[in-house]
Every structure is written in C-alpha cells, then in structure tokens.
Design brief:
Blueprint: H1 2-42, H2 47-57, E1 64-65, H3 67-76, E2 81-84, H4 88-93, E3 95-96, E4 100-101, H5 106-111, E5 121-124, H6 129-141, E6 145-148, H7 151-155, E7 166-167, H8 183-194, H9 196-199, E8 203-204, H10 206-214, E9 221-223, H11 227-232, E10 239-240, E11 259-263, H12 268-279, E12 283-287
Parallel strand pairs: 1-6, 2-4, 2-5, 5-6, 8-12, 9-10, 9-11, 11-12
Antiparallel strand pairs: 3-7
Helix pairs in contact: 2-6, 6-8, 6-12
Length: 310
C-alpha cells in the first residue's frame, strides 16, 4: 500500500508539474502580446516632425520651375494654380495671368482655405527665397507646391516673350476648397506664416551675416551646395550638408540653442531648407541670394566681395 501511495503521489506531482508548464507556455504568448501592446501604446508620433522630415526623405527634386515651363503649360492648357506672394501693390502692377495674390505672411495662412490639393501650385515672390519657404511649408501641409525660379523680378520679368503672359487684371481668390488638414500640421503651418510680421522673413543680407560672424553673435554657417562647389570656395567654418534626398538625417549635428545661417547658390533651395528646419525647431535663417550667381546680379556673399576659403 505504501508503494502504491508513493507512486500515486509521484504521478500526481509529475502531472501537476506538466500541467503547470503547459499553462505557463499557453499563457506566455498572451503575456508577450500584452507587453507588445503596451509598447505600442506609449509610442507617439509627432505629425509635424514626421511631415517635415518627409520633405527630404521623399525628395522628388528641387521643386523649382522656370518661367518658360509655366508659359509652355499655359499654352498647352494644363491645369495648375498660380500663387503670387508679393505685396498687393506690386501684384497689381503686373503678374502672370490667372495668378492669385496672397502677400507673404498671414495672408498665405488664410490661403490654406482655398489653395487646391489636387493640382500643382506654382508660387512666386520677388527673387525666389520667400517662395522657397512657402513651397516647403505648403508641401508639409499636403499641397503640391513649387517655386518659380528667381521669382518675379529676377525670373519672370526677364524671361523672353513673357509679356504675352502678363496682366494687371486681378484674379480673385477662389471659394474654400474643403481641403482636410491634420490639425497639428495646420496649426504649425498657420503659425509659420502668421509669425512673419513679427519675426521677419527669415532672410539675412550678406552684410548682416558678416557682421554677426565678426561679432561672434553667430557661429554656425551651413552650406547646402554640392561638394565640388563647397571645395571651390565656401564661407570659413561652414558646415556642409549637400542639398538632396536624405539631408534631414544630418540636421542633428546642428545647434537648436542658437541662430544659424543656411546658404545655397542663389537662396532658393536655402529658403526651402530653412522652412523645414524651422518647423523642426531650429532657429535657422537663409543668406540673401546665397553665395551669388549670375542670376542674382550683385547680390550674394561672393558677388558682394565677402571672403571665401578653400
């Protein structure tokens, strides 16, 4: 009897152990799922940051269109939208046919109500720099925007045969389009344009940049030109982050606790870059007319005779 009793106890212990292990193994996946769900629950995505980073992560090109291409599109009857962000008085003196005026600043924030999201939007300012900023910010909002190369004064007005495409007739803003924006992104975009009257256009002339460097009020210059141009001559101490796909991955080397200056060749792609960086929390401004090109006349760092190093 003792042997039988011991055997039964032993079997009971073995059975209990096996059953317990089976229950633990069965419970393990559920526990793992609970941990996974808990981990997923604490992950928060900043929609503004994600959209701003996507601007360069999903880079389709420089988002700049020359005037002659717009003229060709007009002739072909293509469907697009023209946005002129110059001052109203300058717009009224002459603009591309069909262009709607929304002066740089709060008026562009208001334009979100009627800008289309189902066709290309071409933005022009005076020289391309504020249009570059507008282009980037509007793309973050979900609008397919590009800037007109060199703006009105240096681009549109100097294009051969453009007179036939210019008018003084005012085109009224269309009715609200009913575009649905992410609430956080819409607030950030409106905030960007609404801040312009108080903070300025985020563009510094070369003389101001030189004075700030000499006084050590700023210490960081970012060149977004390509390596060969940088090697040929750049502002002393400039950090190189070449313009193009994936450049947002290198922004983390830049300070968020000071103002710094971004420059390209003529100021247009620097305008786009500055807009994205400001949405990401950097206090960035662009160098007026960049290093300077033949298209920027006498404006621009090198064109104005400021020093470069190799």
């Amino acid at each position: 009897m003792k042997k039988i009793t011991v055997l039964l106890i032993a079997l009971a212990l073995v059975f209990g152990f096996v059953t317990g292990c089976a229950k633990e193994e069965a419970a393990a996946p559920a526990a793992e799922k609970t941990v996974e769900k808990a981990a997923e629950a604490v992950v928060e995505v900043d929609t503004v940051e994600a959209a701003a980073n996507a601007y360069f992560a999903d880079f389709p090109g420089n988002r700049i269109i020359p005037t002659d291409q717009i003229m060709a599109k007009m002739d072909a009857g293509e469907d697009f939208f023209l946005l002129d962000i110059r001052k109203a008085a300058d717009y009224e003196k002459g603009h591309l046919k069909g262009a709607v005026n929304a002066p740089w600043g709060p008026a562009v924030a208001e334009a979100l109500a009627w800008l289309p999201d189902d066709k290309p939007v071409y933005v022009n300012c005076y020289s391309g720099q504020t249009a570059g900023q507008a282009t980037a910010v509007l793309n973050v909002a979900g609008i397919e925007a590009s800037s007109v190369k060199y703006g009105y004064n240096l681009g549109i007005a100097k294009t051969e045969g453009v007179d036939a495409y210019i008018t003084t007739d005012v085109t009224a803003a269309p009715d609200a389009t009913g575009v649905k924006y992410d609430a956080d992104i819409k607030a950030a975009v409106e905030g960007y344009f609404n801040a312009i009257p108080d903070k300025g256009s985020n563009i510094w002339p070369a003389s101001k940049v030189k004075e700030a460097l000499d006084a050590e009020e700023i210490t960081t210059i970012v060149s977004i030109r390509q390596q060969d141009a940088y090697d040929a001559g750049h502002i002393e101490g400039a950090t190189l982050i070449p313009w193009g796909k994936g450049m947002q991955e290198k922004f983390n080397v830049l300070p968020k606790d000071e103002t710094f200056v971004v420059h390209c060749y003529s100021g247009q792609t620097a305008g786009q870059t500055v807009a994205i960086m400001r949405l990401l929390g950097y206090d960035a401004v662009s160098l007026k007319s960049g290093m300077g090109t033949s298209g920027t006349g006498d404006s621009g760092w090198a064109n104005e005779g400021f020093p470069v190093v190799q």
